[in-house]
Request: fold
Amino acid sequence: NDRMTPGSMTELLVDDTPALRVHFDGEVPANSARYFRALVLWDFDGSSWTREGWRPQLDLETVEAGSAETRYEITLEPTNRPWLVALDVPLAPPENARMTYDRTLYARNRIDQLRQYQLRSVLGYRLDESIDPRDRARALRLPDGFNPKSLALARQWRAEGRDDNRVIQAAMELFNASFTYTLSAPMLGRDSVDDFLFNTRAGYCEHYSSAFVVLMRAAGIPARVVTGYQGGWWNALGNYLLVRQSDAHAWAEVWLQGRGWVRMDPTAAINPARIEAGETATSGGQDSYSGSWLRQIRNRLDLVNHLWTRTIVQFNALRQKSLLQPLGIGAAEQRDLLLALAVLVASILLAATIWVMRSVRSKDGDALDAAWRTLRQRLARRGLTDRADEGPVDYLKRIRASWAADPALPALEQLVRRYVDLRYSRGAADVADVQAFARSIREIRAPRALDRNPRRAT
Reply:
């Protein structure tokens, strides 16, 4: 959402549904660098953070790259919101989107269906080394009459002669010493930051980022809240990063002389021993599901959803028009697609019909039939005509009538009876029995050819 109130993100942090999937062109960023920026929240009314203030300047905050570009593609699940998510920090907006001065990305319309877009980001950077005076004033503004204890603490740090870095260190050490990370955070009163810092001392990323920014502003350090996602699970089989709603996160940015806007994650300062066990999610990239076999299974099964999304759901008009490019049709019209579909369906039906007409049996049945056909072909060459409509019992009668006195007759009778037994007396013939039957046919001596002269036969 574009409003953050400490305690409002609980339902999101226990939501295990996918939020986005990321394909990287090159090296995959380390988990500690996977901060996906969504919104920058500047304005605090005493209880909630928003971005409602008006910024007349349209120039972007400048970026000085300190690392190579990271190129990647994001598939964003529907949010019914217009803003897009980008790896911190994006260099330019994707197609059909715009970038605001604080490098927040907005689509032209609300994201009410899957949105796929390409981006370039730098993980190491200096952001806006020279701050606009109006931005500085906005990043120091605090509402009157709220959180007097928190303001007094930050001003005390300054009175002790601490510079910006030591003030930041004091806040981080405070969180590490006596605060607990939990999703079961107590309700906060009117002075929410005072309640959190001096009473409950328990919460999650919203509580820590909100309190941290208030302390920084009270100490004269420009600061703001950033919301988005952190971490994710790398699917090595599908070669993509899965980010779930439970990876939602809030952190802070402070403006420091000579460094510009610097990311600070106060949640990461919590002593690991003070993170409550049994929670369904933690922030700062720590995945408490990592030991859960159910979570591991769900992560791997997401590959099916991902493939379905890329091949079926995203089969949009543009991809449909390019479908017939391999056939030399650059931009297929609807009639071309319908014709191609009709040909494809007809081909499938024809292939299925041929397959059915062949009456394909199991592998064992095929071998048995082949051996039986070999026997009938050998006897046909000796004068016993083969009839396609004749069963093995009637066939045996003709053998007896044709070769009543031939020494090979007993062996032939035995072969026919074995075939009847293998084909009709069992559910499935054993492979060894079929092989023995075929071997017997190859080894049997065929009868003498019948004399086809009627007078000599008489």
Summary: The longest strand covers residues 248-256.
